[in-house]
Amino acid sequence: MSIFRDQAIRIVHPNATTIDDSKVARDEDWNLIELNWTKINQEESKLLADYDSKKYQRDREIAYPSITDVVVALAEKQEGDDTMWKQITTLRQKVKSENPKPT
């Protein structure tokens, strides 16, 4: 079972309003839903593959300069001092090369 089990159940069974222990689902009238585990497992695999394919994005987000730093760098560049902007640009390129987008 993965962190995507509940999400997969809801995709396969959109009428599920309550999920208990990622094993039992009920609709809005509290009726049990017969879960299609084959489809749920397939959907869960898709969700996990999508999550794994975006690891580089999560890694980049952590390593990129903060929005505040970028805004300050842009303001300073507008005022004639592009030193910080050049540092930000260099850092972004380094982060991208260290965390390449999969092809």
Topology:
Layout: H1 5-12, E1 18-20, E2 24-26, E3 32-33, H2 37-53, H3 55-63, H4 67-78, H5 83-98
Antiparallel strand pairs: 1-2, 2-3
Helix pairs in contact: 1-2, 4-5
Report on this model:
- The chain has 103 residues and is mainly alpha-helical.
- It has 5 helices and 3 strands; from the N terminus they run αβββαααα.
- The chain has a 3-stranded antiparallel beta sheet with strand order 1-2-3, with no helix packed on it.
- Strand 1 (18-20) and strand 2 form a beta hairpin.
- Helix 4 (67-78) packs antiparallel against helix 5 (83-98).
- The radius of gyration is 22 Å and the shape is elongated.
- The model has no long low-confidence stretch (mean pLDDT 95).
Q: Oligomer, anyone?
A: single chain
Poorly predicted sequence stretches spanning 5 or more consecutive residues: none
Order of helix and strand elements from N to C terminus: HEEEHHHH
Main beta sheet: 3 strands, antiparallel
Overall geometry: elongated
Mean pLDDT: 95
Summarize, please.
The protein is mostly helical and 103 residues long.
Features:
single chain, elongated, 60% helix, mainly alpha, 103 residues, 8% strand, three-stranded antiparallel beta sheet
